[in-house]
């Protein structure tokens, strides 16, 4: 069992090492039984919320978190500056205008974070009524570790404009009686609550836990927000999920806190227009978030703004033939959702007069020219510390060639086991030669929690697990030997089509049995045609039909 300890007074440290998303090693203090020290900026994007914003601010004015450690930044996102602070607001509350080059909730929130002065930023929607301990419940976690994203507990209640006053809300929150504002109605749960229930409040959640970051109420260290790149202000909708994805790749742990409760005044747009919202956001998410929920229906060969895998190949000191063999092998992968980063001293390649054939940088120059027009290849002097924001990085030395299915198999292998690192041994003779598949989220967290000189791979192993594998079994061979793997690739295809053929054969058999039971005279033609098509295509894919003709003709 993974164990760790945390000191609530150690706010200056990043915190203990957490494996996966299992934050159970952290023990937050009981509400009201601790002494807060960290400052928080509550950021409220505000647009057409004249009826609800005064109620949200009234509930903030009754919070248990010390007022001298909390500020409230309201971002007026209207076409013109029109908001005025009501009478009942927290002590340190101000209204600002958003950055001028954008509009929408993402731009408003980002503007508020940039203006915030707190160590932690806590987003609150402008139509919430918060429980008295809402902010405190989230802030206690931020005293334990610096890479947590805290999600509040949300319920939706029916509400009519004018049915509640700011004074009523303030009094109810201060008395710990928010439920009384809604006649004791516990409200409608958000879809995320079912995931909380099934994962121990996210402790058992997997790498796609970022999907639970759906706005309304969430907090995180301001530094981590900036390190993840901040909001994508070009997104009118879905920006909370998108930055949740990037926060995960930056090493974040997502914590669900039921004691940080609040009520949403009325139903959300997603509830009212779910199909339209999903139709709108999916194309935006597909480009930015490499997840099956958004890309599962897209055809093979597609490329996206953020690839699923960044592959890295070093070109310095290597021959054109060695580099080209590896890069072409990667570009020929059946998993096309990838990019190739070629690392080398490209700045040395100038246009000065030289002897073309005797150029000391000839191979480097030829490598650059070989991929000048390839959109998936980029040239860098030094690889970044991680593949962020891509979820995986595959490093392969020049001169080694992966089979077409290798990369997809490795990613599937790592995903099924939530591994942080798969190290692949290519050659043990002399100096060890390896390739490696890294999970960005695990490496980012390891880099965050380890100092100079620390064993980064060991930290990744503790965070997400590491295994050693044999390169030949994964189809990574020296250039020149890869031709011997052609039969292996064909055999894989043959096996895939054989399974499809068997599936259709079983389906056809069920139809036959059903037909006999009903005294039918013939088999339904659709499964039979599908069976013949699947078998025939499978045979053609692996070149078996031609072979049979030759044999029969011999």
* CATH class label of the largest domain: Alpha Beta
Strand proportion:
15-25%
Find the count of extended strands (DSSP E, 2+ residues).
18
Taking all Cα atoms into account, the compactness measure Rg is: 29 Å
Number of helices, where a helix is a run of at least 4 consecutive DSSP H or I residues = 18
Mean pLDDT: 88
Given the C-alpha coordinates, what overall shape results? globular
Give the helix proportion (percent range): 25-40%
Structural class: alpha/beta
Number of domains: 3
Q: What name does CATH use for the topology of the largest domain? A: Spore Coat Polysaccharide Biosynthesis Protein SpsA, Chain A
At the fourth CATH level, what is the homologous superfamily of the largest domain? Spore Coat Polysaccharide Biosynthesis Protein SpsA, Chain A
Distance between the termini: 65 Å
Give the low-confidence spans: 1-13, 519-526, 537-554
From the coordinates shown, what is the CATH architecture of the largest domain?
Answer: Alpha-Beta Complex
Largest sheet properties:
9 strands, mixed
